[in-house]
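user: At home tonight, take the chain set out below, taking as long as you need, and be ready to discuss the fold:
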Amino acid sequence: MATSNDENDRRIDYVEFNVADIGAAKAFYGAAFGWRFTDYGENYCEFDDGRLKGGFTNLAPVRSGGGPLVVLYARDIEETLAGVEKAGGTIVKPITAFPGGRRFHFLDRDGYELAVWTRA
């Protein structure tokens, strides 16, 4: 995920697109906007637009109507998860590990799915 430090605690840090074809997504965004890419196996690719990093994944269904997954960074992921629940959010994916960190997904009170990540 994107490079984060304490000044980014609880701020939007990353966006993630569910795509049907990672190669096609790379071809489109590379040609249209000049983004650079780093592959992490056949199911994930990170993009860098020169200012913000994000990712393409084919592990989840493409969202109808589009829309990326917004990912926030947190220094203390357990404390942040507790705060989401206390504020009325619903945890839809518990804290799980991935290469480089851990993350969870939640729904806000209007049903928007977001994620929170921290370093390993």
The two ends are 11 Å apart (CA to CA). The CA atoms of residues 22 and 56 lie 6 Å apart. Residues 22-33 form the longest helix (12 residues). The chain has a mean pLDDT of 90.
